[in-house]
Design brief:
Length: 309
């Protein structure tokens, strides 16, 4: 009975606090004559978005469509960064276990330097490098045929289209804006350093006897790693890898610092124009919560499959 009384009291206090917050918020909104609700989403946004992938958008479109563009931009950079960080992190993690002293040392230096410096500072570094150190389009660097590095973006060919310099910029092919490239590079390199440690720990968690058994049946080191060690290491690696994937999505909100139009940046613009701060923040929280729960659900499903092997 005492435990029930404590729990009932805790619930009562929580409800009282919630009522106070809601009542105080409503009173403040009424005092400032700020209308609440999400009807503003149907109004004309009135601002342009510098980057709109897969969706056509204009200033005459609604706030809802503007937020949809921000969501797509967030998902695009997060999805590519997850793949890039996984591949780079796995390689660096294995390099740290290499018998080659130089390779092992360089990998260790990369991990220690990257993961011990703030991601925001790294984004500023990459943004400065892409916008200040690279030349203008007329003097573009061309590391490979059809690839051009400029301070206005990175241009590369796609099937049926090659970038061609016309006037003051390139046309044709595909381009990565400096803002998108900065965020993608920063998220990938930073998270890869953390994933590298997860991969290294996962491989080291497999007992030495498993390596010896693989060698005993004639497997080469790479074959042993691929067919014997990695499948067992995944049981240790998958849960913390899921956390890093979630961090990529949440860290993408730093895009506002470099001008990339993600969901946070566009929602902030909508808040400044409409004054719907509570609704705008609620939309941001709901978006990140939905994405995080979706990634967690997928990784839990994958982890369950790994554990059954």
């Amino acid at each position: 009975m005492r435990r029930l009384a404590y729990q009932a009291a805790a619930v009562g206090v929580a409800l009282l606090v919630a009522w106070y917050v809601v009542h105080n918020t409503v009173a403040n909104l009424d005092e400032r004559r700020i209308a609440s609700g999400f009807s503003f989403l149907e109004r004309e946004a009135g601002f342009e978005i510098g980057e709109s992938a897969f969706l056509r958008y204009g200033a005459s479109d609604s706030y809802l469509k503007a937020l949809a563009v921000g969501l797509v931009n967030t998902l695009r950079v997060a999805a590519i960064a997850i793949v890039a960080a996984t591949l780079l992190g796995a390689a660096v993690g294995l390099f740290r276990l290499s018998k080659n002293f130089l390779l092992r040392t360089v990998a260790a230096a990369y991990v220690e330097f990257i993961r011990n410096s703030p991601l925001l500072v790294q984004l500023f570094f990459w943004y400065t490098l892409l916008t200040e150190a690279l030349p203008p389009p007329r003097e573009a660097l061309q590391p490979l045929t059809g690839f051009f590095l400029t301070n206005r973006g990175i241009y590369f060919p796609v099937p049926g289209s090659v970038p061609v310099l016309g006037g003051f910029n390139f046309s044709g092919g595909m381009a990565l804006t400096p803002e998108f490239a900065t965020l993608l590079i920063g998220l990938s390199i930073y998270t890869a350093a953390l994933i590298a440690e997860i991969v290294r720990a996962g491989v080291l968690s497999v007992r030495r006897g498993q390596w010896d058994a693989a060698y005993a049946i004639g497997l080469q080191p790479r074959q042993a790693l691929r067919h014997v060690v990695i499948p067992q290491a995944l049981r240790v690696m998958v849960p913390p890898m899921a956390s890093q994937y979630l961090n990529i999505v949440k860290n993408s909100s730093l895009a506002v610092a470099i001008g990339y139009p993600d969901i946070v940046s566009i929602a902030n613009t909508a808040i400044n124009q409409t004054g719907q701060a509570i609704e705008g923040v609620a939309i941001i929280m709901a978006v990140y919560l939905t994405i995080s729960l979706s990634i967690s659900a997928f990784m839990n499903w994958y982890n369950a499959r790994v554990m059954r092997r």
